[in-house]
Amino acid sequence: MGTLTKKDALLTGLRAHDRGLTAAQITARYGVTNVSATASDLRMEGFAIYANPTTDSKGRTKTFYRLGTPSREVVAAGYAALAAA
Question: What range defines the domain where residue 62 resides?
Fold first, then answer.
């Protein structure tokens, strides 16, 4: 069995953290420096990665990345795109 890639490690981490992880947590834990690009890569592989911005009581905004279930509309759009190709 080979070494886990950063993308695989991130996916495993997102599966383990239902509430999501911030970009800083992802960088510290999995060594992913460009979190948005890695999340985009995972989306292109069919994973429903959501980026949820949250503002705390002091006005600071953090984006939590989480693995979710795609809506019916997203699935339908995917099938429509495949049918058009």
Answer: 6-84
